[in-house]
Amino acid sequence: MTASVQIARSIPKTVDAVGVPVATTGAIPRAFGLSRAALAAVGFEGKSGQTFVLPSATGPAQIAVGIGDTGTLDVKGLRTAAAALVRAAGKRATIATTLADLDGVDAAKAAQAVTEGALLAAYRYAGIKKVPNPTTLTALTLVVGDKRAVGARTGAERGVITADAATLARDLANTPPAHLTAVDMANRAVAIANSNGLTVEVFNRDQLAAMGCGGIIGVNKGSVEPPRMVRLTYTPRNPVGHLALVGKGVMFDSGGLSLKPSDSMNTMKMDMSGAAAVLAAMGTLKALKCKSKVTAYLMCTDNMPSGSAVKLGDVLTFRNGKTSEINNTDAEGRLILADGLSLAVEDSPDAIVDIATLTGACMVALGRKIAGVVSNNDALVAKVRAASTSTDEQVWQLPLEKAYRKQLDSHVADMKNSGGSHGGAITAALFLSEFVGEVPWAHLDIAGPMDVDADDGWLSKGATGFGTRLLIDLALSFSK
After folding, report:
1. Whole-angstrom Cα distance, residue 182 to residue 30?
2. Alpha-carbon 81 to chain mean position
């Protein structure tokens, strides 16, 4: 259960902890009770994300929270500080802080960042347990002055919505695969659509076959669980643009007949993180009054080995009529995205963004914290990067290098589905580019930041929900 967030003019007497912002220079708030020299003596210098807890026998604990240089303080720093505060508070369930009341950052943006940082750091997956993991934080109070109160309230409300969306994406990706099949995912999508002003259509195996979606049908052939494609649409009055989102929803990826090693399979329940991010983002658009039309495609299936599984050397035909020789069944995400991208193009959107845990090659290139973005349109990349900066979900552009296209050449089909071991993230994007035509398109490869092994700032152990807030920010700022 998400903690409640409120705006107040003063610190409530009943809170368990108070977060006090401390910069690397300047005065220490007198109420904290320690001088800068005393804090320095215990190693606290006010650097971003540093904390020092001063317990009290008669009142709330005082927690010094480092914000770094006030001259460079931004929403990223505030989000980081709020997360550090929650982690330092430990089992203290009610927290108040003046982090959103600092000069230099717009009140609404500051409150949103602090809210997101606190709620996302407090996240714990409940698990399939008789006694669920508790979420310690139950109430967060943002203490601000009169002049910032209205903006702070707006920002906090938005922060709750975006943090809840990321929490939903995390929950979906953390769920064991037997508890979240493609059918289950579709059912969740229908419930979310009905509660959030979206229209929803669900397509089963027979319908997908009749539509010529040979990519998702081929990947699903080895599984006893049927596939689902979900189309969600948000339509405001007088839309200023039309954005399409396509999410990879491989509910479990064994690699198919190109079987993964066991260690590489441990996190493959999260191979649907792209679809989870898209679904969670779509659920916020009405509440946040998005001005653009947004259409989403969730491409959901398992990738399993069996006697009926697609074989190396098989050729699949996609929705747009193109064909692919299968030379690696573990390069399956691009096969289901091909159908989703083809369908998205038919809707004539102004731009398409797909998001997928697509390649280990991207993780090798950029590590675990940064997603790759590949695009056929520089203006769209600029929008994605702006959303990335705003949400602190880092992306780095990789080239759509046409010279690498020959690595996909096949003598029996239009292309192979894998270009080999070199430049794998780029050849995967080149494969996807075959299905977007001239529509501005960006591909987000989130294989690296899909999950974390331990708590890290506002990220909590397990699935990260990466891309959810980025997609929300992009949709809200998007126009034709």
Report:
1. 56
2. 20
Q: Phi, psi at residue 432, to the nearest 5°?
A: -65, -35
Q: Are 66 and 44 spatial neighbours (Cβ–Cβ below 8 Å)?
A: yes
260 is catalytic: yes
Share above pLDDT 90 across residues of the chain, in percent, rounded to a whole number: 94
Q: Is the pLDDT of residue 227 over 80?
A: yes
pLDDT per position as a tens digit, 390-402: 999 999 999 999 9
Query: How do residues 80-137 score in pLDDT, each as one tens digit?
Result: 999 999 999 999 999 999 999 999 999 999 999 999 999 999 999 988 888 877 778 9
Whether the pLDDT of residue 315 is over 90: the answer is yes
Q: Report yes or no: 192 and 256 within 8 Å, Cβ to Cβ.
A: no
What's CA 435's distance to the chain center, in Å?
A: 24
User: What pairing do the DSSP bridges indicate for beta strands 371-375 and 441-445?
Assistant: antiparallel
Which pLDDT band, with edges at 50, 70 and 90, does 138 fall under? very high
Of 36, 124, 260, 461, the catalytic one is: 260
What is the average pLDDT value for the chain, to the nearest integer? 97
Return d(Cα 379, Cα 205) in angstroms, integer: 37
Q: Which of 52, 63, 62, 139 is nearest to 95 (CA)?
A: 139
Distance CA 396, CA 153 (A): 33
Q: Give the pLDDT confidence score for residue 1 in this predicted structure.
A: 60
Longest dimension (CA), the chain: 78
Please pick, among 334, 383, 385, 416, the residue that the annotation labels catalytic.
334
Tens digit of each residue's pLDDT (9 = 90 or more) over 368-381 = 999 999 999 999 99
pTM metric for this prediction: 0.97
How many angstroms from the chain centroid is the CA of residue 285? Answer: 15
Alpha helices in 211-294 (DSSP H): 214-220, 262-265, 273-282
Q: Which domains are delineated in the chain? A: 4-164 (3.40.220.10), 175-477 (3.40.630.10)
Contact 54, 10 (CB under 8 A): no
Going by C-alpha positions, the residue among 54, 64, 62 that lies closest to residue 24 is 64
Q: What is the amino acid identity at position 103?
A: D
Mean pLDDT calculated for residue range 139-158? 98
Q: Taken in order 53, 54, 55, 58, is the CA torsion positive or negative?
A: negative
Element at 376 (helix H, strand E): none
